[in-house]
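Record 1 of the preview.
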Amino acid sequence: MTEIIIAIVQSLLLVLLAPLVSGTARWMRAKMHTRRGPSVLQDYYDIFKLLKRQDLHTANSSFVSRLMPPLFFGTMLVLACGMPMITRLCPVPLLGDIITIIYLMALPRFFFALAAVDSSNAYSGVGGIRELLVGVLVEPSLMLALFVAALATGTTNVGQMGLMIGSLSASAPVAVVVAGVAFAIACYVELGKLPYDMAE
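->
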């Protein structure tokens, strides 16, 4: 029961603090460019403003466009429940397996691209195809890095992998370091930062 409470608390903390982290990063980037920049709470203001807007869909769109936003949000919540953030081990071990994580991360990307094509708009269709292209280029390197760490530690559980790598008991430390660097670069590309993309 304690594990379930920890999983729920950490997923709610992630949802509540993610806009603050994003706003702080944008504020710091503006300061580095000698600009005033937005407030660190700007993302919260934007979320509240968008929640007040009417939900609009094209006449030709199907249930996919309506299903995508809650599916995207729910998948991220499920992923947050399985990651070791508050504790060193996964609160829900089934959700902390790298195979489950890979499939859960691919699901919202697929529905995002499908909803973009479903909207019957040429520009959103191009954006959806672009999202799939980035996924095809980035996700294999993420998977390979995770599988290298799994082979070096002998487990596919993210919490156990972290414990073994942190205690320097992985069987191939050089391979783990190289996989970690590749994973960090792939995560940076996935975040859509310059020079690969400009998320805002």
